Amino acid sequence: MRSMETPDETAAVPTAEPTAQPAAQPAAQPAAEPESGPAATGVAAQDWASAAAEPQYRAAVVDLLGALAYGELAAFERLAEDAKLAPTLEDKAELAAMAAAEFHHFERLRDRLAEVGEAPHQAMQPFAAALDGFHRQTAPSDWLEGLVKAYVGDSIASDFYREVAVRLDSDSRTLVLAVLDDTGHATFAVEKVRAAIAADPRVGGRLALWARRLMGEALSQAQRVVADRDALSTMLVGGVADGFDLAEVGRMFSRITEAHTKRMAALGLAA
Length: 271
Hints:
Blueprint: H1 48-51, H2 55-82, H3 89-115, H4 120-137, H5 143-165, H6 170-179, H7 185-199, H8 202-228, H9 230-236, H10 246-267
């Protein structure tokens, strides 16, 4: 689903410009946002030093940062590979810049793990097999599939982490939200994919099927990761910190699915 000084995916979609730009070319659609609620209480109102006194909460946050760190490292590697498929030097440079931004996010997470006394490679290791498997199963066959994966697949993961972030202590929440900033995927992917569909409408059907596959694989992968990590799953169902109850977990995945549908519309694809 980050730190190239570009608008976050939670930004509102710009309205159509008066004349030159067609109304059908929106920028990034909003990411899923947790429903608004009362002011933060409990762990969400504490800083890391206070919240981390609870061992299970600390373990959950270390897991979360480890998963995010490996995700950012994998995204860096994938974007660097995808740059080889770019049709122009300009496009290649854009993807290279996005890859560099992903690596910067990885460095921030790695440094934070070290700062709180955790070995970064050990925190990331439990998530390597699942994330590597996801990327193997969803390897793009061409430039356009790579763009859709960067936009749709990464955004689904980002939506999930944003949902979890609002339940974290203030220090961890600030870091997680910062590394989920859009690296430029959104606007870049929307412009390129819509232009490709306009040039050849048949492309739309193929990319719509591809995006549906990405949605299914991404949600399955997220569920597997959480299920395999006791501290994370306990936090999600309310056993640690101010977690979700089971009904709220269902609503969370509904919000993520709704955001996916909006992104598909932004790309000009059927959900």
